[in-house]
Design a protein that fits this description.
mainly beta; three-stranded antiparallel beta sheet; Immunoglobulin-like
Amino acid sequence: DGAPYRTRIEFTPTTTSGFQNIDFFVDTYMQRGKTIVAYEYIYNSKSEKVNSEANSDNALQTIHVPGLMHTYAQNKALKSNLVFADKAQTVSDSVSYANLVPGEKYTLVSTLMDKDTGKPVADKHGNVITMSKTFVAWRASGFIETEFSFDASNLSGKTLVVFESLRQGNTE
């Protein structure tokens, strides 16, 4: 909604200098592809501001929220969105991303889903049709190309969509 996230803690310092951890929770779903900077203000018991850290260029106060911006999946051989109910099908998926940290490692996970049920699609052997690709983001924004091959002989009449998620370590 555009309102800043705020948190407040009270503490009593035990020395003239030091640090205090502050936890705050941010729903980053609507912040995908954006950069968030935390500003901090310290007030004394009389509500007078005695110190602050409000520098938008401070990398130590900055959180980069990665985002998958656009995706385009297609039948690799036909270059269209039509997949036949045949044994050998390959879907290529082009995913654009934004606001990644250059030099960091990420994993893109793509899963074929049944549009009508919202559930993952399995091949005729019962294996969920999914793939993952780990890559290093050399730029903050770019594209990652993936593809996966599968036996689609049991998928006649289904409308398929590809769901993607981007992970860094164990964090999605």
